Each structure stands twice: as structure tokens, then as C-alpha cells.
Amino acid sequence: MAESSKVAYVFPGQGSQNTGMGLDLYNSNPSAKEVFDEADTSLGFSLSRLCFEGPDEELTKTHNVQPAILVISIACLRALQAARRGSIPSPAFVAGHSLGEYTALVAAGALGLADAVLLVRERGRLMHEAGPRNPGSMLAVIGLDEETVKDICLQSGTEISNINCPGQIVISGALQALAEASKLAKTRGARALIPLKVSGAFHSALMEPVIAEFNRIVSDVRFRPPSVPVISNVNARPLIDVDSIKEELVKQLRNCIQWQGSVEYMMHSGVTTFYEIGPGRVLTGLIRRIDSELQVFNISGIEDIAQLARE
Q1: Catalytic residues
Q2: In this structure, CATH architecture of domain 136-195
Q3: Three-class DSSP category at 293
Q4: 269-291 pLDDT tens trace
């Protein structure tokens, strides 16, 4: 790696979970085990057992899966840091996709782990509760450019909720509006339309009924200035102080996730290597589609950590 190159740590969001995740970390790494134990104590129930044993239908509930993915990701990070004895390159930036932004805040020291798991559990609860109030869902549109998808949204009454990479955009809206958007997207040449398994139209105006309550919850949480810039999901620029972090987390709940823009910002700021830390490989795939020349390492378990420690 050239001396002028930079590293970023990125953290996955909801949808990357699987039953059994984290068990290898818990059983083999004391630093990871401490993360699970602290989260269980903070929440007052065994989130770790839910991660390791399921059942799937309980793990995938929004209020459970969000703290679960955060905890697995931080356990991976702590285990990796312990295995490399501090020699893993320090990040110039950290970022996360939707829920993963909270993990990034923990990694940057802006949010304590105990506070983070409680906060994202509340976030998940409110996101789930918004669904019955304003029923809706999310749809991944594959193979269309942003301007075309914007036009489809205007015609159908939907919203762009994730810009993930070139040719992969997610839209949110009421079920009837999504059905209309799906028809329009097919006529405009979409290669695929993938309904997401979520309980509501996240990152859209249909989250508005829970925004005020979430704002009150966020305002009571103790944040600190981050030790490394955290890239905002909402505007793809660094968050560097407590006020901007709090504002970001509330806005993020009902605004589009600018993942492609976030990666491009880091790339244009000199980042050449990304470590995706946490379950799944979703961000690894997106980053490679944004720029195939970027170097990406996926750290989702003890075997990945052992391999990096040997290098």
C-alpha cells in the first residue's frame, strides 16, 4: 500500500444478518466476548443467544436485528484490533450503511456501546411501529440510472431511499405506489426488481409519524466528538461534532441513504482500501461496483481475522 493511500472502515446495515453469526468470535476471542456481554447487560436479555441460536423469526424483527448487527460488527472490530495488536491500519474515515452509521459512531468513539445498543433497539422499535401507521415497503431497482428512477418516483408517488451504487437504487413508498413504480420500472428497462423484506418504507416520508419521538430519544443520549470523521448517510460529508451527529441520526430515519456518494467522497479524499467489518458481504459488493480498482477486505468472522493477522 502506498504511503499516501488511506484506509476506511465501513459497517453493514439491516439485511446482512444470519442465525449463528458471531458464535465463532464469542467462543474464541476475549475482546469479542466482552462486547457481547456488555450488550446483553445493557439490554437486560441475551441478545448474544438470539444471534447464535435464533429463532430466525425473532432475530429478524427490526428491534432485535438492528442491535444484533451492531454488536456483531463491533465484536469483529475489537477482535481484529486485538489480533493485529494495533497494527491494523487506522482509518481516515468510518462509515456505515443506515444502521451501520451507528456502528461507525461507536468505532469512532462518539457513542458508547451500551448507549448504542439501546438507541438502535429503540430505533428499530419505532421503525417497525411506523409500518402499521403508514403501511409501505421498499423495492430495489436494478439497472436504471438515478434520473430515470427519480422520474419513476415522481410518477408513482414513491421516494428514492438508498443510492447504493451505479445501477442499484432502492425506492420506498406505500404498497400501491410501489406496485405502480414496479410497472413503470419494467417499461423503462429495469433488469430486476427486488422487494426487500422489511416492515416499512424506511428512509422515506412514511417514517414521519415517529420522527418527533425519535428526536426526543436521541437528544437524551450522550455523544462525544468523534476521534475520526464519520461520513454522513444523508449528505455524504464528514460528521465532526455532536450537534451534527444528533441532527444526522434524526434526518437519516426519513431521508435517502447516499451510500454511493459516501464511498466516492472517501475515495476522492485518498481512501484506496476499505475494510467491511461485520456480518455479510453487502458493502464489499457495492464498493467494488462503485470502483473496481478499490481494495476491499471483508471481516465477518474469526477466519477472516486470522487470515489478516497472518499477512
Answers
A1: 98, 203
A2: 2-Layer Sandwich (3.30)
A3: coil
A4: 999 999 999 999 999 999 999 99
